[in-house]
Amino acid sequence: MITRRQALIGGAATSVALQAPALLAQPREVVIGVIFPMSGPSAQIGRDARFALETALEIVNGQYDFDLPTARHAGLPGLGNAKVRLVFADHQGDPQKGRAEAERLITQERVCAIVGAYHSSVAATASVSCERYATPLVIGDSTSPNLTRRNLKFFFRTTAHDEMFSVAMFDFLDAQRAAGKQIKSIALFHEDTIFGTDSSNVQRQLAKARGYNVTADVKYRANTPSLTSEVQQLKNADPDVLLPSSYTTDAILLVRTMAELGYKPKNILAQAAGFADQAVFDAVGDKLGGMISRASFAIDMAAQRPTIGRVNDMFKARANRDLNDNTARQFMALIVLVDAINRAKSTEGAAIRDALAATDIPGAQTIMPWAGCKFDKDGQNATANPVLIQYVNKQWVTIFPAGSAVRGPIWPMNG
Amino acid sequence: MQIESLLQVFASGLLMGLLYALIAVGLSLIFGLMNVVNFAHGEFLMVAMYAVYSLWVVTLLDPVLLAPVATAFLFGVGAFAYMGVVRFAMRAKSNVSMVQIFATFGLAIFIQGVAQYFFTPDYRSITDTWLGGKTISIGGLFLPAPQLIGGLISIVLFIGLYLLMSRTDFGKALEATREDQGAVALVGINRNKVFALGWGLGAALVGAAGAVLAIFYYIYPQVGGPFALIAYVVVALGGFGSIFGALAAGIIVGLVEAFTAVLIPPSMKTIAVYSLYLAVVFIRPNGLFGRL
């Protein structure tokens, strides 16, 4: 005869026994560090990056019928449906703070990998710490070419770098010239940190190699209060194409100063950065009709690939703006990293590194115009082919290369 | 380079210099009055720009009309900064100058934080203004309307400031307080009141500059930094506490900056400004027109 007490104990024991396997298989948590400028002059970039990464996180941790890696499972199936958690750190655009924050994320927050960093200068220092602690660093949006030329094993970059972008820009100029348009002279206008310097170095070499005459080469001080003398030099040179490499603040000041000094460039072909930032177009968009920028992201491709539009809707609900060049790449960096962790079935740095090195995501499973995501031996995604976009009637239209173009360019831009 | 281009560079440098002078004179005034370097000066400029921006968003009135409001508002901000922060920092028993530096520096970080909280770090711009984007062209010389009006406002305010300091009882009280704080108390002048008014006046001047700047510049929480740096150089160059020195030094810095940007790579244009400053410090440590 079983007493009531025995029945209760038995019942309790049974329920514990039934729950035990579930407890053992309790999904672990995957902790990923995020390092962006959350305060200081580039704080808006960090703020938008946070929206982009939280959008990616929602897709990874939830179940969505999107054509993206790991989207169709809630959590990571390779790790018992573990959920991902992000730890945000602020580098303020300062390379030393970036290095210190990367170390803090690794040693104190115990993150298994890090995503970042916007500023190339910060990516350069943070990557050294990551290498030392054997923790993978996935860079979505820092484009200095030298970053992937330092024989680092734990460094991966999903975006194209400035050399690839500049080559695409000059391919476009060649195509225009071949089509009978007059392009003889160009002017370089670039800021004086690693981004502008590297960008202009590549452009200078390409111009020489492909026979373009550089009539002005203006290296200016970033965040300067005045650009009048600099613009005066551009005006005197009056090149066929102006190639600026500027961040947001300088881009606004450049466009305003050009208008004030009565200088209307024949064509602008920009190295994105500030010229991909909505703040510039809110401020001086009326003066930028027809300008062309290199880009990694083409929102008008949403017509062909519905996932882009749906991800954009989720992002817009958070950030109250459309995905742009920066946020789309930051989003993709986290997706690529999470896909690797899922395949590694581990949160060990070395295992994730190997999985990242073996990454092979077809372009159709990204929100980018890339051929895909596949890293070369330096950790550079060699298949991240850039596009050129033109600002027409307050909309971005993809105009180059032919495979991605929605329609041909308006050239000259005021034309 | 053609004569036309050089004239253009001269005009641009002169107009920018007048604005630098207007930004710097408030700093100079406060220093001359009580030997306090205000490290939140750039933030006062930023507050003025946000004040104009906010009023513009709400009322859609032109920034030129809003400039007096911003100037008055900044007067309040300056007086409040003295009464709420600096007054207490000055009571320190030892290391007074250090305490003052850290107090105003802390104030700067606090104001930046508040601006970032309420306005977000996004870059704001005022569009569709009467002056914005307008340019007066004389024989190939382009004079942007905002800077031109800004230069005129700067000159008018400098004349007004000169008259205020030399012809009114308030000016005399400021001058007397600067010379002997103990003695003015004996004749019934309230030191705190004079200092608060001095801070208010200094901030109001930078407020007027901010209102002009808001027409053609972008606005974000750190916008004051580069201007404050130039203001410190202008004050040191012109002489601490000298109103005329600030005007002259502002114009000198504007011109030197504009011309060096043409002669050497523009990324190094500040080098010429700081070299000039160093030369003045070596030859005339009090600055060009300094009395201290």
Please explain how this structure is put together:
- The complex is a heterodimer of chains A (415) and B (292).
- Chain A is built from twelve helices and 14 strands.
- With 415 residues, chain A is α/β, with parallel strands linked by helices.
- In chain A, strands 2-1-3-4-5 form a five-stranded parallel β-sheet, with helices on both faces. Chain A has a four-stranded mixed β-sheet with strand order 9-10-13-14, covered by helices on one side. Chain A has a three-stranded parallel β-sheet with strand order 7-6-8, sandwiched between helices.
- The longest helix of chain A is centred in the N-terminal third of the chain and has 21 residues, at 4-24.
- Chain A is globular and about 100 Å long.
- The N and C termini of chain A lie far apart (97 Å).
- The relative contact order of chain A is 0.13.
- Chain B has a single domain, classed as ABC transporter involved in vitamin B12 uptake, BtuC, CATH 1.10.3470.
- In chain B, 75% of the residues lie in helices and 3% in strands.
- A two-stranded antiparallel sheet of chain B has the order 1-2.
- In chain B, a hairpin with a 2-residue loop joins β1 and β2 (141-144).
- The longest helix of chain B is centred in the first third of the chain and has 32 residues, at 3-34.
- The chains are: A alpha/beta (415), B mainly alpha (292).
